[in-house]
Amino acid sequence: MYRLFIEALAYRGFIRASISREIQSQYRGSLLGAAWIFIGPLALLTVHTLIFSNILKNRLPGVDSAFSYSIYLCAGLLPWLYFSDTVNRLVGSFVAQGGLIKKARFPRICLPVISLGVSTFNFVVIAGLFALFLLATGQFPGWVVVAAIPALAVQVMLALGFGVFLAVANVFYRDVTQMVGVTFQFLFWLTPIVYPVSILPVWAQRMIALNPLAVLVEHYQTVMLHARVPGGDAFVRLAFVALFALLGLWLALKIHRDLGGEMADEL
Amino acid sequence: MSAGTVIARGLCKAYKRYGRKSDRILEWAGLGTRHALHWVLEDIEFRIAPGESVGVVGINGAGKSTLLKLIAGVMPPTSGSVEVQGRVAALLELGMGFHPEFTGRQNAKMSGLIAGLSVEEIGDLMPQIEAFAEIGDYIDQPVRTYSSGMQVRLAFSVATAVRPDILIVDEALAVGDIFFQQRCFERIRDFLARGTTLLYVSHSAATVHSLCDRAILIDGGRIVRDGPARQVLDLYNATVATRASRSGPSSIVSTQPHGNAKHAVGSYEHHGVAIEHVRVSCDEAPAQVVVSGSQIAVGVTIRFEQAFADPHVGLQVKDRRGEAVFMTHTHAMNHRVGPVDAGEIVEVEYRFRVPLAPGEYSIAAGVADGGLIGGAVADSLARILNAATFEVVGAIGEPQWDGLVNLRPSVSIARPGGLEAEARGVLVSTSRSVLWLDPRTRRIRPVHRGAGLYYGIAIDARHIYVGARRRMVSSQAPAADERGAILVFGHDLRLHQCWEAPFPLRDIHEIAVREDQLWVTCPFDNMVAIRHPDGQWESWYPLGEPVNAPRDCNHLNSLAFTPGRLHLLAHNWGASERLEFSLPDRTLVARSALGQQAHNLWRAGAEWRTCSSAEERLTGDCGFSVRTGGFPRGIASLGEGLTAVGISEVAERERRDFTSGSVNFYDADWNLLDEWVMSGEGLVLDIKSFP
Lengths: 267, 691
Prior knowledge:
The structure holds 2 protein chains of 2 kinds. Chain A is mainly alpha-helical. Helices cover 76% and strands 0% of the residues of chain A. Chain A has helices at residues 2-10, 12-27, 36-55, 68-96, 98-103, 110-136, 148-172, 176-189, 202-209, 212-226, 232-266. In chain A, helix 4 packs parallel to helix 7 (148-172), helix 4 (68-96) runs antiparallel to helix 8 and helix 10 (212-226) packs across helix 11. In chain B, 13% of the residues lie in helices and 43% in strands. In chain B, strands 10, 11, 14, 16, 17, 19 and 20 form a 7-stranded mixed beta sheet that branches. In chain B, strands 5-6-7-3-8-9 form a 6-stranded mixed beta sheet, with helices on both faces. A 4-stranded antiparallel beta sheet of chain B has the order 13-12-15-18, with no helix packed on it. In chain B, strand 40 (631-639) and strand 41 (642-648) form a beta hairpin. The longest helix of chain B has 16 residues, at 178-193. The chains are: A mainly alpha, B mainly beta. The interface between A and B is medium-sized, with 29 and 30 residues.
């Protein structure tokens, strides 16, 4: 692990340049150029706040503000998008850079770092816009947002672990990306992002509680909407999720050690 | 282990082949081995020292690229190990990591980062990368706008921006135009010269030849031969040729035979064909050594043991490095041998010129069957390498050249101004050579060299006479031991004869020819030697034979003739004099002062003139004076008022043979028109116009 970190550090120039290149390539050759970095997230936020708040006039039980549903939605949606973006990028990264892996000698650990870097950048942009929106509407929860950071860290670990594991698997079984895509479809609805968990029957609520993403999302929602630090039992649940994330990381390291050398043969 | 070493020990690589897709997961999950191993490389062992250049050859699928990837560290070995010391740059594919939408500059940066350079290093190297890639402003355009040649140039430029300790090249250079390939090889050679170890994979034996001293032949994943490049490549060529042959197996010579050069490594012979012998001849006689540019004949005798329908005979001329200088066969030359029966003997002779660089060359002879449209042959039956050898030596007297082949160019120089186009040529004799200068074509033609100083030129209707001192000014031998001679050239500037007198001709200065008599001044003895038409020599002492040493009292160095009179110039080691003798009795009738330490004597109108060497000018007894500077000696009239004067550098005795004099050309008013410097020729001693 430590060695991997050192190797990645040596190649930090490459990592930085690759992240920048990937971000740029999203809007390269387009008319609006770099504005697209903001246009996408802005559009998403606008739709989800305007439509749900004003047009559909959703309201959350127990909370009265006009924006409460929007905030609830975005508190879950944005980290979810971060998570799925990270995992999707990770899973396809080895195959996408197959040419490089086959012919060049460089630490492969760079590729997951690059994927994470790009998705983090996208998340920071949209989270920043969301924070501005909150500030503008006076709904910013204040210093409590710091409590979201441990959850974010666990989320990143989770994404990295399973992402890299699936990335290696994807090299040998190319439909892994599709499988991941389908899984996320279901996972989205198994996570209380769009709906409050309280509207589900109790047995369903217990099932949902097993979903690590549900735990994370609940954490964010508590911080952003209710503007308070989650309680002790929430942190206990977070700790379980952290363990689960560690399992993912262990699997990732193991498969990379075992099959990493053969990846070059399959690419 | 120093940087640049590569050591492979028991290196093996296998790919896993799974029966079904799911077998791989099951195996990983711990449910037993479910794969079969397909071995691509087995038992690879070698040691490459820093600075070696090694070629890796083999047919497609032999495992060469896999081996390079293992050495480059792109993939791990299945068993065994490969140790590499130092920085490795692997050109396994050019344009790795190039994103079409980004500019050349951005892609170059990215490639540099992948190769492990830091951002600052790349910034420093960017000007050099741009310069080598030579794509101009395109470097700031997206790569998708590049032609494939430009992409490859940029990729190579980036990949070789920093000299690595080990350079691995996998046929990536097969693309690109000839200029690019030449520059690639230049850069690779530059790296080699500075100590980089090179591993080069190619199908092109010629490039492997030119880059590598050592080669490794891989076949079926194993090393078949590891040795000097030439041997291994011959074996490789033989393998490829026989594999393609339809006539059945041939035996390939693969071990170095003892002393039998006829069957060198890589030779093979189908059992139905025997190349009996191959001989090289020049001018109808067997030749071992030939002069570059001469014509030789190569005869090949073949005995056919069985019948063939359309046999052809070919030859290859290879240089000492094994590079094929030329190859052809009867079919390519649109000739046919015709059907042959068992037991027939056929002789084929090739005649050609060899304008090649000096060195050893070998001839390989081959026999094939079946000529195809387009010039190729179907089945290679036999090839004997090193069937005959010959050596090419430089042609003396021909223009100097270097390289592989003498292309024999002609050159013309155009310049405004300078001498009149009608200026005649001049023969010049110097400390080192006799030269002919042609002001019109600006050409110098050496006529003779190596006979010491050349002093004294005389020309008559049939011959040119030059005095050859056969010693140099700087020579340490006693002057009294000098034995000069007269070289006789024809008007074609070829040496015909060499005349010597029965007595020593020492310190020959000017000579003159008149009515088939040759007059030779020998100032050492205060003597003039005369050679009569019948070949008899006479020694004449104009001022009496000196008794004491040194005998060179007057240093009589020049002569001139007027009707009934002979004039000698006495240098006198100071105030010089013109001595006038009546002919044919040779009595002294007058002496008059002329010049200081003077050389040369000629008449212009009523005036006698000389080169007053001590005064750095030409002077005459009626007031003529032209300042030349330097040490004037030697003068010739070229017609139309043009005069050539030899000017030597003033120097100490030891240095005189190595100075640079010049031939100055003056017009009728004694304006200097041209100064032709004779670099390193030493003193300019005599000049005569010719033709």
